Amino acid sequence: MLKLYYGPGACSFVPHAALEVVKAATGAEFETQTVKLHKGEQHTPEYLALNPLGLVPVLVEDGKPLTQIVAICDYLDRRFPQAGLLPVEPWQRAQALSTFVWMNNTVHPTFTHVFRPSAFAAGEAAQADVKALAVAKFREHLERIQAMIAHAAPWLLGDKPSFVDFYALVFLRWGGLAGIDPATLPVYQAFVERVAAHPAVAAAMAREGIRLDTYKPK
Ligand SMILES: N[C@@H](CCC(=O)N[C@@H](CS)C(=O)NCC(=O)O)C(=O)O
Question: 110 C-alpha to center of ligand 1: Å?
């Protein structure tokens, strides 16, 4: 059976919601294991044996680990094509991956600078600079996603929910934690409420114990 190691509210939510979509479409059950990132559980010897990078997510099948969100999601799509997670037509599939990879290699690392500026600058003032610049850049990325959402029909890739919709939800939650009021991105906010109401997504959110309202007004 497939087993996903995830951190509540982390990027691992993307394959987590996808596994729920797969389960609904095919009946394939999966197991989950929480990795409490704030407690450093990603650095235990047992976990590092699965992923020497000490990051979530990890998908384990038959005792063999697979890391990296895009690789995990590509595997889920190819193994369970009935779930319709990515378009089949080659050009559309490549376009979908283009958006997905941009989210994974650009938007996501921008937030890492917000969340952990100490990994990118030594002094306190420099860290505050890194964080402020990264928040501004992250907001630009959210605005770009909001512009994509304006063409959603009804999901970002068309008639079926997919990885990019789940990533969009994760990013708006993270934006709230970074002090970005989701009400200032109303089209995005309404979209994410719709994503969260999808039964597969709602099931993954319930298991992770996460909600959409991460923003706390100052
Ligand atoms: N490129 C990796 C990024 C994974 C990643 O950044 N995971 C974060 C959570 S969103 C993590 O595990 N952080 C733990 C840490 O930095 O200690 C992927 O696509 O899987």
Answer: 12
